[in-house]
UniProtKB/TrEMBL annotation:
<keyword id="KW-1133">Transmembrane helix</keyword>
<dbReference type="Pfam" id="PF02472">
    <property type="entry name" value="ExbD"/>
</dbReference>
<keyword id="KW-0812">Transmembrane</keyword>
<keyword id="KW-0472">Membrane</keyword>
<keyword id="KW-1003">Cell membrane</keyword>
<protein>
    <submittedName>
        <fullName>Biopolymer transporter ExbD</fullName>
    </submittedName>
</protein>
<comment type="similarity">
    <text>Belongs to the ExbD/TolR family.</text>
</comment>
<feature type="transmembrane region" description="Helical">
    <location>
        <begin position="20"/>
        <end position="38"/>
    </location>
</feature>
<dbReference type="InterPro" id="IPR003400">
    <property type="entry name" value="ExbD"/>
</dbReference>
<keyword id="KW-0653">Protein transport</keyword>
<keyword id="KW-0813">Transport</keyword>
Amino acid sequence: MRGQPNKTADEEAQIDLTPMLDVVFIMLIFFIVTASFIKEAGVEVNRPEASTSNPKENVNILIAVTANDEIWMDGRRIDVRAVRANVERLHAENPKGAVVIQADNTSTTETVVAVLDASREAGVLDVSLATEDN
């Protein structure tokens, strides 16, 4: 008997899935790396217009203040007293990020200032107010 031993029919009929799994994992890594993760506050607001607005980079914490002074973060409504804790938690995930407050143009200044103060108390100094371009 020379050469390889005889293979049974079952061994010849098996399909090697290793190359397919390699391709799937490479595709998964590609999509994770190239995906852009956009965080949204969870509610749409009518932002005020400003002629001196500048685009903001490294935004990872969005806080929305609605027309009836509800505060929204990460798609859920929160109380003004919980803003600081939520900002601290999100800022710990990305310390280089900034806070952007999306306040409705009919929301009260008191609520917007309370959110701004809570963000600053949480240790984030880069706090901005979102506006619409003129």
